[in-house]
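Protocol step 4 of 6: structure prediction from sequence.
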Amino acid sequence: MSHYQHILLAVDYSPHTDYVANKAKSLADTYQAQLSIIHVLDNIPMPDTNYGAVIPLNENSDYDLLEIEKTKLMELGKRFAVDDDNQWLVWGVPKEEICSCATQQQVDLIVVGSHGRHGLALLLGSTANSVLHHAHCDVLAVRLLDN
């Protein structure tokens, strides 16, 4: 078995983000793998921009909500020693953007939090479940316990 070379951490800024990030960082350290982070914006309106769905972190915008999201991502990247070039903020559908990024960046492991839904909630889907079924690489779903 070969070791993981590039790990993609998918974050949603829930209260569990640091817990999941610590798992991803530990794996990256263990395997001496590159660690990257993606956050997909699916809950704020997309303004008219000339840069498309991938948001450059080094450019300022007049959109306050976007600047808040960028700041959160960059702070998380700093806390977990992720290079600026390996942090992506993207507008879109989370499962699609996470899987697309993983393919484009030649990721071999995606780490995402999972609430372990059952019944109807599972049938309706979750980001973790969707990524698991659509990714072309390994996926680690970190079990989250609701308080």
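Step 5 (inspection) to follow. The first strand starts at residue 6 and ends at 11.
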